[in-house]
Amino acid sequence: MFRLYIVLVLLTITPYLSAKEKKIKITYQAEKLQNGVKNNEKCKQLLGNVIFQHEDASIYADNAYFFNKKNLIQAEGNVKIITNDNSTTITADYLIYDIQNKKAKLRENVVYISEDAALYTDHLDYDHAKQIAYFFDGGKLMQKDNCLQSQKGYYHEKQKLAKFYHDVHFVNEEYTLNCSKLFYNIQTHIAYFKGKTKIQNHADHSTIHVDKGGVYNTKSEKSDFKRSKIETEKYILIANNLKKNPHTKLYTAAGNVVMKDKANGITIFSDRAKYWEKKEEALISGNILVQKKLPSDTIYFTAERIVCKNKKIKKKQNTIVIAQKNVKFYKKDLQGIAEKMEYISKDNIITFSQSPILWNNHSQLTAEKIIYTLKEESIDKIFLEKEAFIIDHAKEENYNQMKGRKIEATLENNMINQLIIDGNGETIYFAIDDQKDTIIGMNYITCSHMTIDIQAEKIENIVFHIKPEAIFQPVHLIKDENKKLPNFQWYFDKKPTQAQVCGDHFKKPYQSFKFS
Q: Are 239 and 254 a contacting pair, CB within 8 Å?
């Protein structure tokens, strides 16, 4: 037997249609053509190198059945659909094609290729008229280094837009993205996602959690996230809106912003924040609250503007926090106000400058600059530099006062227990009869250098180092004009409370941001 090779070229099938329907033109060819019956229906059976041509697309297969009455093609084996402009190619093991509606069902080992993107699935429905491909029961879109997977989705050829639903998984060399719904434009490389999303950066091991969706350019890494959290090994950044500029490596956060420095236990709340990744510097503004947790207490402070940065000082990496304008500070046993405050993490030093005032229990401390150090997370020493002045309420309208060029205060159990006055020392303190709890006199002492020991907020002992001059006045000889040293100012009405420092944060605690 010789092999019969049948080639049917330009065989036009014009089925009977109603007057309202358009005539359908389809041509086909194969190695062998015969009449047959499939599923109790008469059909044409095409065997070997089957080719169908329908309008602007060609269909290839090993074998096929053509149902003339139903305008239906069933094809199997090396199935392929190619558009005439070669913009789209689809391959599969099996095909059902509705000629009238230009819809195809492709099954098993389906590969859909459009431009430089390829979609892999076992179940694909293709609407050739609308140029939309639908997949279900799992699909994977590949574009260069990007791999996008989900359970369901579709791709719109004209819009170059892929939409993925349920367990969406996006991976490339730099990051991994997981969400429930994602739209991806293969031309612009922009991904739009909704609902809870997780993005993991492979390079710096950072993680981004997004609660309410956003926009992400997979090529440039430019992003705009709604209610999101970025977490690295060093810090956490949370905001209602978070943007990233990939060129400047600038993060911009707005609305309920929370920044956490993990290593130093510092949390900053604000309305707005900017973070420059390259120089590790942040600028915070609007409704600011900073808190640093200690083992048995918490330090709070607020300001109109805060700058945070990582910087090497004496070859040591330091976190530096600089607060500016209307600074208020609160700790259970220490409060303060100033126009500027600076915190250096490694040395555990906090510096107040520009009209600073501190209060320790009943004592008021003023100077041009006030520095205090933390030791084992408790206040160890306070240094007052230039025009140092300490005032302590003694009884009624009487105040103990210590003044000098510099004063060093040592604390024990968060209370001042010793003062060292260095240069131009002056002091006024009132002698009190402990049994009667009444003032019996006033001491006025001048000495360049002196050491004052304090117990239970009472002066116990004074050591004078260089030529002291002392005057004691009994209570009946004390004149009001002599009760106060020059430049005496009592500012206790300005002493901030926790509610004043924390503001709305204290009245209504910040809602913690929870992610699944």
A: yes
**For residue 367, pLDDT beyond 70:** yes
Neighbours of 222 (CB within 10 A): 15
DSSP-assigned beta bridge partners for residue 35: 44
> How wide is the angle at C-alpha 189 spanned by C-alphas 169 and 231, nearest 5°?
55
DSSP annotation of 15: -
479-497 residue pLDDT tens: 999 999 999 999 989 999 9
Q: Give CA–CA dist 275/282, Å, rounded.
A: 4
Residue 218 φ/ψ, nearest 5 degrees: -70, -15
d(CA 252, CA 71): 58
Strand partners, 482: none
Judged against a pLDDT cut of 50, whether residue 150 lies above it is answered with: yes
The backbone torsions φ and ψ at residue 310, rounded to the nearest 5 degrees and listed phi first, read -100, 130
pTM for this structure? 0.73
- Show the 3-state SS of 98-140: ECCCCEEEEEEEEEEEECCEEEEEEEEEEECCCCEEEECCCEE
CA gap 218, 244 in Å, rounded: 12
| 312, two tokens | 């090497």
CA 213, 216, 222, 225: dihedral to nearest 10 degrees? 10
Closest by CA to 386, choosing from 368, 412, 409, 366, is 368
The two three-digit tokens of residue 479, written as one number = 């004149």
Q: What is the pLDDT of residue 209?
A: 87
Q: DSSP character for 481? A: G
In whole angstroms, give the CA distance from residue 235 to residue 264. 10
Return the structure tokens found at 72. 């239906």
Strands 349-353 and 88-98: unpaired
Paired tokens of 504: 């709305």
Q: Contact, 448 vs 462, CB < 8 A?
A: no
Residue type at 355 in one-letter notation? S
Antiparallel, parallel or unpaired: β 316-331 and 305-313: antiparallel
3-state DSSP call for residue 79? strand
- Token pair in block for residue 211: 């609660």
Between the two ends of the chain, the Cα-to-Cα distance in Å is 70
Residue 14 CA to residue 27 CA, distance in Å, equals 10
The CA–CA distances, whole Å, from 463 to 72, 440, 485 equal 109, 22, 20
Residues paired with residue 395 on neighbouring β-strands, in sequence order = 398
Higher pLDDT, 464 or 86: 464
Residue 73: strand pairing partners? 66, 97
What's the rounded Cα separation, in Å, for the pair 52 and 112? 18
Q: Answer yes or no: is pLDDT of 417 > 50.
A: yes
Longest dimension (CA), the chain: 142
Among residues 316, 301, 399, which one has the least CA distance to residue 350?
301
Other CB atoms within 10 A of residue 151 CB: 15
